[in-house]
Amino acid sequence: FESHPLRRRRRSAGRVGAGGSAVSGTAVRASGAWTMIRYLYRKSRILFVGINPHPGSYARGVPFSNNKMFWYLLSDAGLISETRDALGDDAALKRIYEARFNAVYGLGLLNVVERPTRDVSGLHKGEEAPGRKRIARAIRTQKPAVVCFIGKVTYARFKGSREVSFGWQEDIGGAKVFVMHFPLRGKAAVRVRELRRIARAARA
User: Fold this and answer.
1) What pTM was computed for the model?
2) What percent of the chain has pLDDT over 90?
3) Which residues pair with residue 168 across a beta bridge?
4) Cβ(182)–Cβ(162) under 8 Å?
């Protein structure tokens, strides 16, 4: 999942950013300055969907940057061509995310819930409703080849059902749908194989 106290919060609706990428995000005051995580997903061939950001990732302005495992897995699976040293450096990772993640690699990411919490237990019942609409709209307008939900909890919240499994699911709006294991707490090799399956499907 992706706490420090959040005293004030202001939201900005999904929009098209200066670089032409579709973005969605929430601005948060953290460590005395406004920070914002910008979710890039314009015309992505693979759209990743997370549950919600960790406060550490939120403060850095980059998804999954509190623990870099998601980024290491993308590199190991060949979805991005970046060194571990670069991915492990906060400033370098932010540059990679903002300049290359969507524009060069054709990847996108949205969260079901934009509010940061330390884990899923901090989410409120029904809080995922706006995110379901936002993600469905992104699938409809951006037409990714594959939508990959990161973890069963994420897909369960999106679907509104606890009866979910890993692997391929029913298509959504013409996009293939896959549920992968969460990046943490398990063998990296399993996640790498899943990401390679997703990449192959996106090329098909």
Assistant:
1) 0.83
2) 78
3) 178
4) no
